[in-house]
Structure formats: C-alpha cells, structure tokens
Amino acid sequence: MDAEFINSYRNPQLSGNWFLDLNPLSKMNIIIILAFIPVFYPSWQVSIGATLFYILLAVTSGRFKNFISPFLKLGLVIGPFFFILRAIFWPGDTTIFNFGIINITQEGVDLGIRYGTIMLVVTAVLVLLSVTIKAQSLTYALEKIGVPHTASFIILSSLQTIIDLKNKANVIMDSQKSRGIETEGNVFTRVRAFIPVLTPLFLGAISEAEEKSIAMDARAFGSDNSHSHLKFLRSVPVWEKLLVVIINLAVISLIIWRFVG
To answer: Which residue ranges traverse the bilayer (predicted)?
Structure first.
C-alpha cells in the first residue's frame, strides 16, 4: 500500500484555512460567545453588526456558498415571524394601527425589530456552526477532553440521523413522483403528498437504528478500552488558545460594562 496514503491518516487532517483548521471546540466557543453581545446589547444595530460579522466569518472560511442559502431560508422565515408576533400583539401607548385584536403600536414595532434581528443572529450562529464544524471532529474533540465515547456517539448519531432522514425523504418523494403522484404545487398539495411518506420514513429510521446498534455491539463499542480513530486533530497552538481567551475576556468585559455602565 502507498506509504503516503497511510501517512495521510497519521497526520492531522488540515484544510489550509486558518478558521476551519481551528479546534472544533475553539470554533464553537468563538461563534457562540460572540452571540451574547446582541443579547446583552439589545439594539437592532448591534444585531445586524453581529450578523454581518458571521457572514464575514463564512466568507473568510470559504463556506459562504454553504452558509448563505440555509441562512436566508431560515432567517427570512424566523426573523419576520418574531417581528410580526411582537409588532401585532405587544401593547403600547403609541398606536399605529388598530383593527379588532390587531393593535400595532410603535413600542411593538421597535420590540419586533429587536427580536427579529436577534433571531437573525441565532440563525447565523446555527448555520455557521453546521457548515464550519464537522460532527466527527467535534465528537473526537469532546472525547479528548474526557467526554465518554457513548455520549459523543449519541451526538454524532443524532446529527447523522437528521441527514439520513432528509435524504431518505427525498428518495421516497422522488419514487412517489415517478409513480405519477403529484408532489409539487401549492402548500396543500405538498402537505398531502408528504403525509404518506411519514410512515415508511419513521419505520425505516427505527429499523436503521436497530441495525446500527447491532453493528456497534459487533465492533465492541461498549468496551472500556481506548478507541481507535482514522482521523486526528492537530494539537491546539498557543496563538489559538490566546485568541479564544482574548475573545472570551472581551465579551465578558462588554457584558460587565453593560451592567455597570
């Protein structure tokens, strides 16, 4: 066997991008803790600034194409949804529009903008985590800091199950379409076509879960001995540790300043 191929599994798997090559726990720390700034500084300007920063991180990491599509799909639904809920039903003194139970006030609009932009930040955080952190790398990093391999497997299996369900649903929908069943059109047509898919989808998921547990038992997954890995993470350099510490201290200082000031 080619020695270079063998050695490729002995060395850390690096992409050449400084952000993607960060330890998964470091990336998670940086992405999540920055989201506390718009939470403790609740203004739409801060939330928009944080959202733009996450978009910049996606560009810097080379994951912009993977990031922007799910971000727009989720953000353009969740953000306006929270805005409408707050704007329509939040009481206030300055009424802009009133009709029946709908009472739009200036205070409700202001609060709706604030909540809507915060949800944009939350959406950006979730999408950026999913496109920049591999589940396998995250679970391996958790095991290295002492998390039991059973817990890391549950995390990895849960994430993989979501992906498998999505792929299987697409396969079933394509097979339904090949039989001449209408699966595209308005919302009611899509719902009517998707309901029959649920039964084989979840039965297949239960069956696959049982097969996976049998396969893991056959591979001595429950053994207390140390487990082997095909891929390895690089050791965390000093500059990366300093970067995480500086960002954490900066965010904590801003939060303390918010309450003191």
So the answer is: 30-59, 71-92, 112-133, 242-260
